């Protein structure tokens, strides 16, 4: 053991001797992602802290074997990314203490407080324990953090050269001709126009800027694409599929390519009799377009997952990551109410995609497709639109 690790081991032993407090927590083992998320959230919403795994409640060093270390490291990685919102990035180290190995998880005081679990609960530390945060505490933290929406956040490795300028100029030429002309004549800079539209922040593309106008959006947002599968059966667990596609690119490219997938993989039915009869898709294309646009724009971009488009023998499912936000319910959506989770996407995509942005998409789809089933799955954190075939 080198001098650095020796000093660290002595510090850990000292913290173990002093017992649990608001910045130190002991766990003999961790197996439940939800319970682990509560601990990570409570540290992040307070002053940060150290979670020591392989230590009993009484401070005894129980240690971890190789299999436990591997399992817990994987659980920590998945939980910090998927069960804490927004995701956090704790530092984990395996240390030797009294001839046994433990995992030390260092959690920083969060920069984007307040944090919540995937079940929507906000925790903070209260001495050596944790507790749910009060409404007053939450309002204060939201005010202090000036929390950005997911689509406003800057992507650190990106810059203005990652913008598809041709696509942006095409958009601007129809959206705001006077700004377009001022930009062409050098009266405005491209960076200024992008910043004014919240597509560029601190010299980096925002998530919205990348998804709408990025050259290669998945370079910086690798989880945000559409998974399309035509299953040979009625269950996701069937052995075979007829065809599948991973659809990447800008939101417009994702929309157009996914619509092509559906046009190919859904049946066409004749609208009249005769050899040269016209045909139409078995599910109204306007309905498909409304539901797909809804999934792309209103999904939860804090969840690192793709939109799913599944064609089964008896139904079509369009699944977007994230449960309905705030107090929004399926019944309220049916009445045309909406809450804008991604305000930049909501605003700009009105001119990029076939989308009104007024919360009427689902309502229109229900008029055209009365048997449309909407499912707000809060446990799986996804919103499903199901259409019987």
What does this structure look like?
This protein is α+β, with helices and mostly antiparallel strands. The protein has three domains: 3-147, Methyltransferase, Cobalt-precorrin-4 Transmethylase, Domain 2 (2-Layer Sandwich), CATH 3.30.950; 152-219, no CATH class; 226-388, Heat Shock Protein 90, CATH 3.30.565.60. Helices cover 35% and strands 21% of the residues. It has helices at 3-18, 33-45, 66-82, 135-145, 165-175, 177-184, 190-196, 207-213, 251-265, 285-298, 330-334, 343-348, 361-368; strands at residues 24-27, 49-53, 84-85, 91-97, 100-107, 116-117, 123-126, 129-132, 200-201, 204-205, 226-231, 241-247, 268-270, 279-281, 307-311, 315-321, 373-377, 382-388. It has a six-stranded mixed β-sheet, covered by helices on one side. It has a four-stranded mixed β-sheet with strand order 1-2-5-4. A hairpin with a 4-residue loop joins strand 17 and strand 18. Helix 2 (33-45) crosses helix 3 (66-82), helix 5 (165-175) packs across helix 6 and helix 9 (251-265) runs antiparallel to helix 10. Residues 20-134 form the Schlafen AlbA-2 domain. This is DNA binding domain-containing protein.
- The overall number of domains is 3
* Tally of DSSP β-strands: 18
- CATH level-3 fold name of the largest domain: Heat Shock Protein 90
Query: Whole-number radius of gyration?
Result: 25 Å
Strand order of the largest sheet: 12-11-15-16-18-17
Which class best fits the helix and strand makeup?
alpha+beta
CATH architecture of the largest domain: 2-Layer Sandwich
What separation lies between the terminal Cα atoms? 64 Å
Top-tier CATH class of the largest domain:
Alpha Beta
**Helicity level:** 25-40%
Largest sheet: 6 strands, mixed
Percentage of residues in DSSP E strands: 15-25%
Task: Please tell me the overall pLDDT.
Answer: 91
- Characterize the overall form: globular
The DSSP helix count reads: 13
Are there runs of 5+ residues with pLDDT below 50, and where? none
